[in-house]
């Protein structure tokens, strides 16, 4: 059985870039944000990462045929009803328990079965040993953990980014090239800070329930992409050989055509993609908003190795060695217990 590498975290934390990077590894098939497959692709026929409409993409046609005897066999309305019933952040306290009620369990298993079918089919038609789903949603990861043994070999990469950088990114206008005239969702800094805390705390609960989980900071990925990718490949059970990382440079990744089902516009990128941090938040995010985001996310900030008071831009290079140490990469490093539950309740 192929392992499923689930990339979790709040949006604008680098998961699409990581997904595209991992998709270049031999033995890996990257699917994009499968959580949006049903509505945006199966129903609305938006563009695949390869640039063609979903219905015209040969890769997804083969996956659909293998999984459901064709996408026409998927009751999208039912999938979305199940999602509304079980896959919301407010459901995580129930999903994180050691037992589910009979009705909830039936809905969770029915919902998760659609994902398991897609994962198995993608592995079957490509021969991949690792399937990457960059859906990000913490609630979906909690649903998938309930799948019965043998259904999904779930492993979670919990990706975090400095919440002030995340907050600044959410304020930007970003067009959705696959949907003419539409833009990606925008959040206020306060809203993004609450979501950052909620989703990251919720992902931390997975480790306490026995789900294999490794933590990756976006900033560490950019600083040494080869080391980060090598560690994740090992976590996924994928042995690497000499030359497997030749598509990586110290400051760039070379990507080919991908088939990401959904995600940010970076999924359409081809060729050399620069790996550089976006530090614009240090000057572009107003000081009051930076302080607000820091206050709202403080309980988890230092846990992930981020300073409460970042060094001023002019001093940052000189004082980089003074930054708090990065957290350990594996295990329950994301905050649990009553603090996590409170953060979850602050989410959607």
TrEMBL record:
Residues 329-348 have a biased composition (Low complexity). GO terms for biological process: N-acetylglucosamine metabolic process; sulfur compound metabolic process. Pfam families: Sulfotransfer_3 (PF13469). GO terms for molecular function: N-acetylglucosamine 6-O-sulfotransferase activity. Coiled coil: none annotated. Residues 313-348 are annotated as: Disordered. InterPro entries: Gal/GlcNAc/GalNAc_ST, P-loop_NTPase. PANTHER family: CARBOHYDRATE SULFOTRANSFERASE, LD35051P-RELATED. This is Sulfotransferase family protein. It comes from Pilimelia terevasa. The lineage of its organism: Bacteria, Bacillati, Actinomycetota, Actinomycetes, Micromonosporales.
């Amino acid at each position: 059985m192929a392992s499923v590498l689930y990339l979790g975290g709040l949006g604008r934390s680098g998961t699409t870039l990581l997904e595209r990077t991992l998709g270049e590894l031999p033995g890996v098939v990257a699917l994009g944000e499968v959580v949006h497959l049903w509505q945006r692709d199966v129903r609305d026929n938006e563009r695949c990462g390869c640039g063609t409409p979903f219905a015209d993409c040969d890769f997804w046609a083969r996956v659909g045929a293998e999984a459901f005897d064709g996408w026409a066999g998927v009751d999208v309305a039912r999938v979305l009803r199940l999602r509304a019933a079980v896959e919301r952040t407010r459901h995580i306290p129930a999903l994180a328990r050691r037992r589910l009620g009979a009705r909830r369990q039936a809905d969770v298993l029915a919902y998760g079965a659609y994902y398991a079918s897609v994962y198995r089919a993608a592995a079957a038609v490509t021969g991949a040993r690792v399937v990457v789903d960059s859906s990000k949603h913490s609630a979906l990861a909690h649903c998938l953990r309930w799948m019965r043994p043998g259904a999904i070999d779930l492993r979670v990469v919990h990706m975090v980014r400095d919440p002030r950088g995340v907050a600044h990114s959410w304020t930007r206008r970003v067009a959705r090239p696959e949907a003419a005239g539409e833009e990606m969702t925008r959040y206020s800094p306060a809203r993004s800070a609450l979501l950052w805390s909620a989703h990251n705390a919720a992902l931390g609960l997975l480790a306490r329930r026995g789900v294999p989980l490794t933590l990756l900071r976006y900033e560490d990925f950019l600083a040494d992409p080869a080391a980060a990718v090598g560690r994740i490949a090992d976590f996924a059970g994928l042995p690497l050989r000499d030359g497997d990382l030749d598509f990586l440079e110290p400051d760039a990744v070379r990507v080919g055509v991908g088939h990401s089902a959904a995600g940010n516009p970076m999924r359409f990128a081809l060729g050399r993609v620069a790996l550089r941090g976006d530090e614009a938040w240090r000057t572009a995010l107003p000081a009051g908003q930076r302080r607000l985001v820091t206050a709202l996310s403080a309980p988890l900030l230092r846990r992930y190795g981020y300073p409460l008071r970042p060094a001023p831009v002019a001093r940052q290079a000189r004082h980089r060695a003074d930054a708090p140490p990065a957290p350990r990469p594996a295990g329950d490093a994301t905050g649990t217990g009553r603090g996590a539950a409170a953060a979850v309740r602050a989410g959607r």
